[in-house]
Request: fold
Amino acid sequence: MAIRSAAPRSLLLTQKAQYTCLRCRLTARRQASTSSHEVDVSGERPSEDVVPDSSFLTPAPSQDVVQSWDPVQRSRSRRRQLPPSRYKFRPPRYYRGPLHPHQPPPPSSPNSREFIPGPFSLPRLEQTYTSTLAPDLLSLLYTHHPPGTLPGPVGQRLRSWDDSSPYHKNRGLRAPKGAPTLALLRRPITFRNIPRLEKIVVHHVIRDASKRDSSYLHVAGMVLQAITNVRATVATAKHSISNFAMTKDRTAMAVKAELRGEDMYHFLSKVVDVVMPRIKEYKGVSGGSGDGSGNLAFGLQASAVGLFPEVEVNYDAYPPKMIPSVDVIVCTTATNDRDARVLLSSMGIPFHGKHVN
Reply:
């Protein structure tokens, strides 16, 4: 046991002696370099941390050299100019067309004047759509066509004449019944065109706008801005009607707010999770509320607008009889009402009645 304990002790003594010798060697080298160096002009010895051959000990240039130094003249005298830096680019203040040589960068570039940083976090409804709803919608709406086969024929979209009159001969086909335009064709659903929300328009039409004062307009704009987080815009009359005291582009008829992105998802989640469950005997959105092109609309009465958290917490700030009822138009990328209803149903909006496609 004595032999085993002596070995580590001798090893410690050897390491301590080596450390002492190394410290003495460094001290001697530092003293030698300090003593051998001359004292500078100011009469002070240089710092021990400065290497003897450092650039800090270089004498300063004379005053004549400083005054005669001209960097602009030196840059002009170069035979070959240096390449310009790419960080000197400044986007133009105004867009002067696609043929102008000075084009602004895309809005996604940090150099752009239109660059908006973010988003730093996604709304809960958008995260749910990306992770859960989009794969489920693809499974529900996908129609598989084996390779080498073509989809079925498309039915006749225009109506023909019944030849009940001799004037029907050689006439072109008629527009579809009930609409002057053709309905959108339904493209096969793939992972590239899964239906999603595009925008939401919230608006309120002021009845007897020409007879009422502007207080109704101001209150409606304040309520829309509170529940949508978007500043409401005023819609004026498009035609002048003397019987109704309406003047074109002057008489305010409605206020509206257009929601996109984060504000759109936040508003829809509040409607689904907070407002609709608190409406008494609420059946849901009508199944025939679509326009045939994937856009659905529903209304909320003044009592339902008062259930929004932003209005309810400051309910005394709004006149009770002036709280507006709003119409909500949900625009989707779907091409028919069926796909749009499936999308909104997955997000929690109930539908009732006969579904019209």
